[in-house]
Amino acid sequence: MTMQSPRPLSLSAHSPLTGTITVPGDKSISHRSLMFAGLAVGESRITGLLEGEDVLATAAAMRAMGADIVRGDDTVWRVHGVGVGGLLQPQTALDMGNSGTSTRLLMGLVASHAITVSFTGDASLSKRPMDRVITPLSQMGAEFTASPGNRLPLMVRGIAPAVPITYTLPVASAQVKSAVLLAGLNTPGATRVIEPVPTRDHSERMLRGFGADLTVEETPEGRIIAITGEAELKPQTITVPGDPSSAAFWMVAASIVPGSDILIRNVGLNATRSGIVTALKMMGADIEEVDARDVGGEPVADLRVRHAPLSGIEVPPELVPSMIDEYPALFVAASFAQGRTVARGAEELRVKESDRIAAMATALQACGAAIEEYPDGAAITGTGGEPLPGGARIETHLDHRIAMSMAIAGLNAKSAIAIDDARPIATSYPDFVDTATALGAHSAWLNQ
């Protein structure tokens, strides 16, 4: 965090939300574009990069390992990479801040290079287990010295050449899949990942775009992704689409504030990421996809979202991997729906930046919502569109998605809902409050 003191915040809406907005560049694609460009030989150019703290941590880490990364005054990021196999020994520990994605993917990159790298992070990231990445990377020959519970701070001793493996994901995780594939980039032979349940496929799309020899095969056992190592990546020009995870907050906001009508431009709608759009439409949300198009191999559209009455649903389990980060926002939408919404199969939420199931259950209950917590999700009985009672101060647990979700809940509450600290929002959405006010919401910075 860039500031030392907590910044409590509340949002309110005394009239409909209206206007046209853009959201930050997709966080998953931003991380990967810097990493892959940092391994290519030559200059890559990236526009639309998310300039939140998490992505800036990735840029700093790649610089520390030899990549030349510069942001121009024209907001274009120019990256001169070191080549696959060319990562250098960093002089100090890599501070990942709050970014689990940066940490896990970079652990994969380092694992197949003959360097030793220490990873540190903030209090929230240091609580998150890394064993699900350590297990396959250890099979490839890397060595790890971790804090108790396989948490940060930890040290990775990479190895070259690493050993190619075939690894079946025990849980649906794009981060684990990507870490193994990235380790495979500098590993002789074919490294394979089998995912029984499809997860976001940005790594596969982008690695192929950079010239990696990568194949995807659909089988009865699941998707088999194979990458042939000792690759030579070619520089690319990348346009990062808007982050659907960030757009989700405004989709929910417009749906729950009567009379709202907003347009969100340039939202990435990759099928492995857009489950929240499907779920909200199932609930009755009025979401129109305008000018659907393809940008850099990723499907994109503008989304027009108008207020509509929502109804409770049972969220299909197959949607979970494509909307895992959007569950806090979904819980807010469900709190305003008519009837009961049941969302299960999302135990992964327990080990995010916070325990998002427990954090959201506690927060929504404090605001008067009816929510029943399960080990893998929750059931919420909504207000039928009526405002929540509100009047609570919410503990965000340094989790940006808890902070933004509960701030959105405050847009339709009888009494103000205050979040205890808005600083974590900067990890993924530095302009969140400015966007809210541009749509007509009122923001209030509160005393601690």
Structural write-up:
The structure is a single chain. The two termini are 17 Å apart. The protein has helices spanning 27-39, 53-64, 100-111, 131-139, 174-185, 202-209, 244-256, 275-282, 327-335, 356-366, 400-409, 432-438, and strands at 9-12, 18-22, 43-47, 68-71, 77-80, 94-95, 116-120, 143-147, 151-157, 166-168, 190-195, 214-219, 222-228, 237-239, 261-268, 286-295, 298-306, 340-343, 370-374, 377-381, 388-390, 393-394, 413-415, 418-419, 442-445. Helix 1 packs parallel to helix 6, helix 2 (53-64) packs parallel to helix 3 (100-111) and helix 3 (100-111) packs parallel to helix 4 (131-139). 28% of the residues lie in helices and 27% in strands. The chain is of the alpha/beta class and 448 residues long. Helix 5 links the parallel strand 10 (166-168) and strand 11. It is globular and about 60 Å long. The chain is built from twelve helices and 25 strands. The strands form seven sheets. It has a four-stranded mixed sheet with strand order 22-24-1-25. The chain has a four-stranded mixed sheet with strand order 2-15-17-16. A four-stranded mixed sheet has the order 4-5-3-14, with helices on one face.
Uncertain runs with pLDDT below 50, 5 residues or more? none
Largest beta-sheet details: 4 strands, mixed
C-alpha-based Rg, rounded: 21 Å
- Strand portion: 25-35%
Mean pLDDT: 96
Strand order of the largest sheet: 22-24-1-25
Number of helices: 12
In whole angstroms, the N-to-C terminal distance is 17 Å
